[in-house]
C-alpha cells in the first residue's frame, strides 16, 4: 500500500481546494486597505495575484472589477474574523444565501475537468466569481476541518488574514513572521517601560 497521501482531485478551475483557499487569502490580503491608505490596489497588482495563483493570463481587470472584488473581500473577511466555527459557518451561510448562485458543474467548455462553481456563469464578473469561488473553498474547509477556516492578524492595524494550518485548533495569531516579531518587540518594550 502506498504510504503517501493520495493527491486530491482537481477542483474549481483545476485547482484543489487548498490552492483555492490560498488564492482567496492572497486576494483578500492584496485587496485589504492598510490602515491610513486611501488608495485601492491597482488592477494590475490584483491581476498579478490572480496569475500567481494559476489564472491563465492575460488577466484584464478594470478599476470597477477591483471595486467589486474589494466589496466581496469585506464580506469574506467576516468569515475570517469569526472566533469559532459556529459563527464562521453562520456568516458563510449568510453569504451563500444572499450572494452566490446555485451549485453547478462546469468544464469551461472542455478545457478543465468538471468541477463545482457557485457563480451564475463561466463569464461572470470578477467580483461575483471571487465571492463565489471563495465561499465554495471556505465551505469545504469548514466541513473538512471542523473549525474556522482561518483567522485575522492580531497585530493592531494589520488588515491581513491567514488560513488555519495542520490539524486541530489553530494557535496561530499573526499573518506573518514580520507581524509576530513586531508584536514581540512591542510587548518587550511595554514590559521594560513598566519596570
Ligand atoms: Zn499581520
TrEMBL record:
Q: Where is the signal peptide?
A: none
Q: Which organism's genome codes for this protein?
A: Streptomyces monticola
Gene3D superfamilies linked:
Jann2411-like domain
One Pfam family, short name please?
A: ABATE
Domain Zinc finger CGNR residue range list = 152-190
**Highest taxon in the source lineage:** Bacteria
Q: Which InterPro entries match?
A: ABATE, ABATE_dom_sf, Znf_CGNR
For this protein, the record's PANTHER family field holds: BLL6575 PROTEIN
Q: What is this protein called?
A: CGNR zinc finger domain-containing protein
Amino acid at each position: 500500500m502506498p504510504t503517501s497521501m493520495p493527491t486530491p482531485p482537481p477542483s474549481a478551475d483545476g485547482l484543489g481546494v487548498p490552492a483555492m483557499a490560498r488564492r482567496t487569502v492572497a486576494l483578500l490580503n492584496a485587496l485589504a486597505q492598510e490602515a491610513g491608505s486611501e488608495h485601492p490596489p491597482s488592477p494590475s497588482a490584483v491581476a498579478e495575484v490572480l496569475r500567481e495563483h494559476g489564472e491563465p493570463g492575460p488577466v484584464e481587470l478594470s478599476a470597477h472589477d477591483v471595486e467589486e472584488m474589494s466589496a466581496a473581500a469585506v464580506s469574506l473577511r467576516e468569515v475570517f474574523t469569526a472566533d469559532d466555527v459556529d459563527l464562521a459557518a453562520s456568516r458563510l451561510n449568510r453569504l451563500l444565501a444572499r450572494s452566490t448562485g446555485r451549485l453547478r458543474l462546469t468544464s469551461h467548455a472542455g478545457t478543465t475537468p468538471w468541477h463545482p462553481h457557485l457563480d451564475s456563469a463561466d463569464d461572470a464578473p470578477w467580483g461575483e466569481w471571487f465571492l463565489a469561488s471563495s465561499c465554495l473553498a471556505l465551505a469545504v474547509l469548514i466541513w473538512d476541518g471542523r473549525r474556522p477556516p482561518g483567522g485575522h492578524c492580531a497585530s493592531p492595524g494589520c488588515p491581513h488574514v491567514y488560513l488555519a494550518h495542520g490539524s486541530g485548533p489553530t494557535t496561530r495569531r499573526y499573518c506573518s513572521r514580520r507581524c509576530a516579531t513586531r508584536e514581540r518587540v512591542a510587548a518587550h518594550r511595554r514590559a521594560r517601560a513598566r519596570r
